[in-house]
Structures are given as structure tokens and as C-alpha cells.
Amino acid sequence: MKINFLRKFRLKSRITFFLVLGIVIFTFIIISFSRMFSEFIIQKYYYKHLKDIHSDIQEGIYLLLTNINLTSVRLLQNQDIYDLLSNEKLSYNEKKKKLIAYLNTLRINDFIGDIIIVTKKGEVFNFNTKLNPSVFITKDLLLQIEDRRNLFVWGPIVKDNGNNYIVLGKRYYNFYTGQYLGYLLMLIDENSIAKICNKSKSSDMVSTLVIDQQNKIISHPESKYVGSIIFENWLYDSKKEFSYSLRTINEGQFLVAISRPSENLERLNCRWFIVSLLPLSNLKEQLTKINVVIIWLVIITLILCVIIAIKAASSLTNPIRFLLNRINSIGQTKNVKPYIYKNLHDEIWELELAFEEMTKRISNLVETINHDMEKQRELELTALQSQINPHFLYNTLDAIAWIAKIKKQPEIENIVMALAKFYRISLHRGEKYIRLSDEIELVKNFVAIEKIRFPNKFDIEFEIAPETKDLKILKFTVQPLVENSIKHGILPKKEKGLIIIKSMLVNENLHIEVSDNGVGFDLSELDNLSKNSRGGYGLKNVDERLKIEYGKEYGLFISSEKNKGTTILIKIKAKSE
Fold first, then answer.
1. Confidence of residue 532 (pLDDT cuts 50, 70, 90)
2. Which one of 90, 146, 494, 574 is at 20 to 30 Å from 485 when CA atoms are compared?
3. Looking at 267-421, which runs of residues are DSSP E strands?
4. What is the phi/psi pair of residue 375, to 5°?
């Protein structure tokens, strides 16, 4: 049995409990979301600012790479360099010396640390003689340049005496003839990128980095980290152009803002991410103060709400308690004078009005019920006085049979005796079930009456297995089938008919078969034939009674053929008690 635990407490306690519980839940939500509120403040003040910073840095890098691209175009369009490199009369050293002298006249930008040209023959000419190109020029790098055709290819980061250079490669070909000459490599000074980041820096609290798609640092406020990998892959999980999140880096809490490469940088094959780190350590003190204020406000609000909850519960329960006392007084006094709060229109006031109306209706109903009960007693007395005693009917039929015998009227005597036996079996017992032998006896008496009505019209045979005689069946199960056989099967037939009744045990079921050699019928006519036009039990009625009593797998099973007869099988569960 389910019991509502809260129903054990008074209504006032329950109202107070739910109100306080709601406040506690609300308090928990406020405290839980205070951190989200703090993040919202950070977003409000830093989101747009950091996004603008990243946009400026990307624009600066784009301008830097555009200048580098223009420098490469200048080199590709220079006929003097073509002539110098193709001059077979000059030695390698002479070519290198003249190339350096010539490049010095071109005023190469300071952000280009070195320019290297690698010919198809494998000759390497570099502008900055302090750097050793063999350190960073690898076969894989040249293959990548070859695959990318006319696009820039980013190579490794070269470190030299505290300076960091980013290798940028491109195919070197004759701009006018398209002749493939070799490879052009330029080393970009990382300081030029760091200056762009520092120029856009808003404060010392924010550190801005540039990271390539291999998760390698291109630019860092501390040059020692350039070329290393210190961040996790989650920096690039975001699919948005600009996103931010709170992350733990080297055991420190940071607000990490990430910008994906812009479309301009993508066109230059520069897939660099801009990452800004804002440490939260300086904000923790302010956040703590905010949380302390929130907690105190919640505590004060909770105390006030508890007081209000108690007052509100009292305002609800006091009128209900008063109404309960009035309800209890109804059974103690005959007349209860109604008392209703005046000029109130809340739900409790409506409940009091409904209670008064209910009291009046109950009083009227009690008077009506008392009147009806008195009338019922009178009707029951009348019914008892007019009730027919079945024994009076049996004795009357016996008296009629005795007079018929004295008057020497055997047919009247036989039909009255058969009728008396029929009613004695069917009426004097109120049981739902009777023995099969009693049902057969009832059938025999019914048949005796029918034979008197229709002499020489039919015969009947019984093949009742001895082990089935004492089994119990529903009263009036076989008799309606015999009546149906006589009426619809035998009487329409010109010749004399025969009805055979058999019983047998099959497994745990009792089978009773009623067959005749009457006119038969098509099974499609069963619904019409199974209904007794005089109001008795039809086949359908018997079948439904059996299915209700024993189950859907039991009932009547009918087979019939026109001009040959009908067989009806009664299948029920064998029952001895």
C-alpha cells in the first residue's frame, strides 16, 4: 500500500516545507550559476576586445606576407638573376659573390632574414652567409614545394644566436618564359611577427601567440618557446572563426581566446591560429568578493522567505482548521448555524460556501433516503407475501397427474409428470452447475413432452459414458441443443428423425455430442438459426455462456450439411465439483 510520507505532517508544515525547499533550490541555482555569471562579465568586457586584437594581428600578418610575396615577385621578374645563374662561364663562388652584391642593391626588407635560391643542379645560393642552408633545406621540404607548385610552403623554424626564422619556400621559375629554374626560399624573422602581436597588445595581462596547424608555436612573447609544442589539440576543436573558453594551462587558469585563420591568410596558404591567454588569477579576488556578497544576500533572503512562508501557511491553514471544526460538529449537534467570513472572495471563502450548500444537500438526501428505505421495506413485504413457493407448483402438478390417472387420461398424466420432473430439476436447485446425469434426466423429461406433442416424429438415443455421469456442467447446456435439433432439424423433415446424445472424456475435457439426421443447414445461416424466436436459449447464447465460464477455447463446435443432418460438439473442462 502506497503511503505519501508528507501526508503524515500537518498542512502548515508541508506548505512551509515546500516554500523553504523552493528557496533552497533557488539558492543552490544562484550559487551554482554565479560562476557562469562571472564568465558572462568576462565575455562582456573582453570578448569584443580580444576579437578586435586578433583581427588586427591577422591583418598585420597578411600585410607582412603580402610584402614577402611582392619581394618574391621582384626576384622572379629579375632578368639579371636569370642571366647570372645561367652563365656557365662563371664559377659557383663567383656567381654567389655577384648574387649577394646584387641582392644588396635591391634593399631587401628587414623582416626577411635570408634569401636562398636552389638551382636544378643542386647549387645553393644564400644572401645571409652566416646561416647554413643545409640545416633546414631537406628533400621533404623541396618535395612539398614541388607539390604546391606556385603556392608558398611553410618549412621548419630555424634558430640562430637567439633569433628565430620561419622558412617560406616557393618554386623558382622564369617569370617570362615559365622555365623551371629551382627553388626560392626566404627566412622570415619571427621578431617581425612578435612586433605585430605586441603592437596590438592591450595590457600586460594578455599574452598573444601565433600557432600553426601542426600545433607548433610560430610567435611567443618569450622567444625560447618558438618552435615548441606546449598546447593541447583542444585549441583547434572550435569550428567558429573566434571562440573562447576557460582552460587550465601549466596548472594555471586562463581565458583562452582562439581565432582561426582568416580567408586572406588561407589564400596565402598560411593556416596560423591566433591565441590570446588571459590569466584569471588577477580576477579571482574580485570573483570571490562577488560570491561572498551573493551568499550573504541569499542567506538573508532565505531567512525572510522562511518567515514569510510560515505567515503564508498560517493564513491558509487557520480558516481550513476552523472549517474542519465545523465539519466535525455536524455529527454532534442537530442544528449547525453557518458562519461565513463576510466580504471575502478567495478560494477558502468559496470552499465555505460550497460546504454550506453541501450541508443542505446532505440534509435533503438523508430525508429522501429515509423515505425511500421505508418505501422499500413496504415493497419487500409485499414481494414476500406474493412469492410463489416452488413446492406448491410441484404439488399442484402432482395433483393434476393424480386426477388424470383417476380419470384414465394417460397422455395428460405422462405430460404433467414429465413437466413436474422438468421443473423439479430446473427450479428446485439454485446451483449454477448440475451433474451431467441430472442434465440428461432434464433432457429426457423435455423429450417426453415433445414426443407427446409430435408423436412418431423422432427417436432419441443416449450413449453416456459412465465416468462422465457425475461430472458437473452448466445447467441448460444440452437441453437447448436438443430443442434446436427437434425444431430446426427434425420437424421440417418428412421422415422420422433420430437424435443421438453421446458423452466422453478426452484428456481433461468433457465432450458432449448432440447429432441428428435432420434437414441440416449451411453454416452461413448459423447466426439466424441459432436464435430462438420464442425467447429461449439459442445456440449462440449457449456458446457465449460456455466461453465466459470456461474460456475462449471452449464452447460449441458445429458441423452441418443440408439434407444430411447436424452435429454439435460441446467442449468444456471436466469438473467434478
1. very low
2. 574
3. 273-279
4. -65, -35
Whether 566 contacts 500, CB under 8 Å? no
Round to whole Å and give the CA distance between 505 and 475.
19
Residue with cell 600585410: 63
CA dihedral 344, 349, 354, 358 (to 10 degrees): -110
Rounded to whole angstroms, the Cα distance separating 232 from 209 reads 14
DSSP label of 488: I
Sign of CA dihedral 23, 26, 32, 37: negative
Which tens digits make up the pLDDT trace of 458-500?
999 999 999 999 999 988 889 889 989 998 899 999 899 999 9
How far lies 225's CA from each of 53, 250, 278, 395, 451, in Å? 22, 14, 18, 124, 121
- Here the cell at position 523 is 453454416
Conformational region of residue 552, where left means phi above 0, alpha means psi within -120 to 50, and beta covers everything else: alpha
The sign of the torsion formed by the CA atoms of 366, 371, 376, 381 equals positive
Taking the C-alpha atoms of residue 317 and residue 135, their distance in angstroms, rounded to an integer, is: 90
Task: Tell me how far apart the alpha carbons of residues 492 and 458 are, in angstroms, rounded to a whole number.
Answer: 12
In tens, the pLDDT along 45-78 reads 677 788 888 888 999 989 988 888 888 888 888 8
- Sign of the CA dihedral 30, 36, 38, 44? negative
Closest CA to 559 of 532, 522, 510: 522
